[in-house]
Amino acid sequence: MALREPAWRVTARELESSLxxxxxxxDRAASYLLSPFGARMNRVLIAGTLSVAEPLGRDESQPFWRxxxxxxxxxxxxxxxxxxxxxxxxxxxxxxxxxxxxxxxVHLYRGxxxxxxxxxxxxxxxxxxxxxxxxxxxxxxxxxxxxxxxxERIEKDPATQEEALVADGVPxxxxxAARESLRRYPNVDRLAFRRELRNAVRRVAGDSGPxxxxxxxxxxxxxxxxxxxxxxxxxxSAAERAEESVFLDQLxxxxxxxxxxxxxxxxxxxRVASRGLVADRAEALLNRLEEEGVVEEPIVGKxxxx
Amino acid sequence: xxAEPPAPxxxxxxxxxxxxxxxxxxxxxxxxxxxxxxxxxxxxxxxxPLLSGLLSDGTATVRFTWWDPPREGIERGTxxxxxxxxxxxxxxxxxxxxxxxxxxxxxxxxELPRVDPEEIPLRTMKELAPPDDGFRVEVRVLRxxxxxxxxxxxxxxxxxxxxxxxxxxxxxxxxxxxxxxAGEAVRVTGGYVRSFRGRRQLVLxxxxxxxxxxxxxxxxxxxxxxxxxxxxxxVEDDGGGEAVAVEGVVVGLLPPSGLVYRCPxxxxxxxxxxxxxxxxxxxxxxxxxxxxxxxxxxxxxxxAGRADTxxxxxxxxxxxxxxxxxxxxxxxxxxxxxxxxxGRRLRVRGVGTKDxxxxxxxxxxxxxxxxxxxxxxxxxxxxxxxxx
Lengths: 306, 388
Prior knowledge:
Helix content of chain B: 10-25%
Strand content of chain A: 15-25%
Number of helices of chain A: 9
Low-confidence stretches of chain B: none
Oligomer: heterodimer
Strand content of chain B: over 45%
Number of helices of chain B: 6
Mean pLDDT of chain A: 86
Low-confidence stretches of chain A: 210-222
Distance between the termini of chain A: 46 Å
Number of strands of chain A: 13
Structural class of chain A: alpha+beta
Shape of chain A: globular
Radius of gyration of chain A: 22 Å
Number of strands of chain B: 20
Mean pLDDT of chain B: 89
Radius of gyration of chain B: 27 Å
Strand order of the largest sheet of chain A: 5-7-8-10-9
Shape of chain B: globular
Order of helices and strands of chain A: EHEEEEEEEHEEHHHHHEHHEE
């Protein structure tokens, strides 16, 4: 029985903090992103401000747009492509940051340095009046608090029966999500997260929108977004330096002539290969340059200077 | 019970005591419903008539099959005495067969067993499941209304409504007029439960009996019909319900939504000018929205009809048709409805049924919800209050 996935009410901060995935098995199985705060998300509903979208990719037959979404707790990317025509046309039409409701599917992208980035592939977007955004945010904060309370209840008494929770009006799916969250994120500072939710409550009460706010709060949630730091690599040899300059020159050349300002990874690998840098070496070099913060890959297969 | 004199031994068994057995039994029962059919013998291809339907004696209802029945003289309501009936079993329930060995004769209504309501087991709404019968219920009538339907060639009035006790609410369909009125409390015996369009339904006909009772322990109708919204997850868990209330946000529309065409005879939707039942017809335009409503715990479908769609969207059917003439793309109508409804908060009451695709609500009311922002902010701040 394939029931429609509910749209979990979450804040941007909760999305940013989510790093654990649950891949569905079998035919057409849904996969889920698990948050540290009791959400097991396939689809989400978020309310905040959408910035002016930018087109990504250079294949004009496959347009893809991305916008930065912020609420009072954090920021995530909202994207839409040709498979989300309605959402895409909404993104394209926007000329200034505006309050919006977004329903979409969550995606976790892990860069080659295994840092996770969460984005929302929008199914529907609606630009709304500010009080509609605040009403939706109230719903989001309320359900987030409900989930936090549930996590604490289960943590306090792990033997709590599902039926007892269901009898108290807790959805079965939430019980499952809560248990999984506790298992996968054993050391999360939920108190810090609660503190961050205060900004969202201020927004519900009518404080200025996130666009005009003092900027995002300091990330106090102790979820590591990057793997632990490695020992510093030995200084590159002269030969490596030479390879590096070939690599970066080619990257700049491709980026200069590309429509979107990015260098296509495949094209780059092909070019440096013709200059004697084999694919394996080029990959290793790219990894190092990304780690050093020289080059970044904001979209899979698209590079630019950091 | 031991103090009572032993009941006089009757030759016939009561239907509620019927058990599958090899030895034939004698019984007296009323024909509740029947169909005539013919089956083709495999051996020689000859056709053999049979009559099958439901028998009841007030204690239970059982299916029966009558091989080579008389051509005339059998009607709904006919009381029969059968000597030498065979009792078999079908899907775990006893079933009676009248064959050439069975002697059948008309009987008087007075010959039916006398039933004391107290000996029929009392059931709650929660317990009832198709194809239960031979029970009594004590319920509150929440609503009731007559409707004329055509059954075969016959026009009949069916009284439809909702009944409830403390454990739940189910729908009622009475083919006989018991003078039921909304709000009254009744004891009902002789009904049976069937599943109709995914809903459990208590069915009553002439053989049922209805007695008014005090009903002080039965719920107040207003309380049930005005119940506060529940979570979609709860409604899914309950498998729908007769008086469901939910509150959520519109996150999508399911096809077919927007401008649709319906058969003028049966109201079914018409595809390429062809009705599934009535063939080539002139489709009548109609407006509808199959709303996906999501409250964060689950999602369900709300089938909004023309009036609700026009009111929520703010565009009439005529205006929608005019727009379609300007831009002849029906999907635009659906797009425009979604653009207007997406993200809006609605409270919906109605009948919820569940199938493989989840819960669908046939709405009685759809109301936009205004959120009190100040109260919400205060409530949330209080919940966060203990955090320093």
